[in-house]
Specification:
Layout: E1 8-14, E2 17-23, E3 29-36, H1 42-54, E4 61-65, E5 68-71, E6 76-80, H2 90-96
Parallel strand pairs: 1-4
Antiparallel strand pairs: 1-2, 2-3, 5-6
Length: 97
């Protein structure tokens, strides 16, 4: 049985934008999305973009990059250039979403 492609979604949160791309296992971009960040609704916004991209092709993983410091033992954002509404345990919030 042939191996299935391992598509991934990469999300970059930076400045005032969220940028996301669906890429195949060779690194080729299949589809992109970009939007202005909604600080009050960031987790749901990113989850919605990921759902939208995953409707294009099956996805095996999602990675999210955020500027600032993250405590890997608690998965909490320690410092960030985002508004104070962005913080806490974003990992858990993204996993729930």
């Amino acid at each position: 049985m042939p191996d299935q492609a391992q598509n991934s979604i990469g999300v970059a949160l930076s400045g005032s934008n969220v940028r996301a791309a669906l890429v195949d296992d060779a690194g080729k971009i299949i589809e992109r999305r970009e939007a202005e960040i909604s600080a009050e609704n960031l987790v749901e916004q990113v989850a919605g973009i990921a759902r939208d991209l995953s409707s294009v092709a099956a996805v095996s993983s999602i990675g999210i990059a955020i500027p600032g410091l993250v405590n890997r033992q608690t998965d909490s954002v320690v410092t960030s250039r985002f508004p104070s509404t962005v913080g806490g345990n974003l990992h858990a919030e993204f996993m729930r979403a």
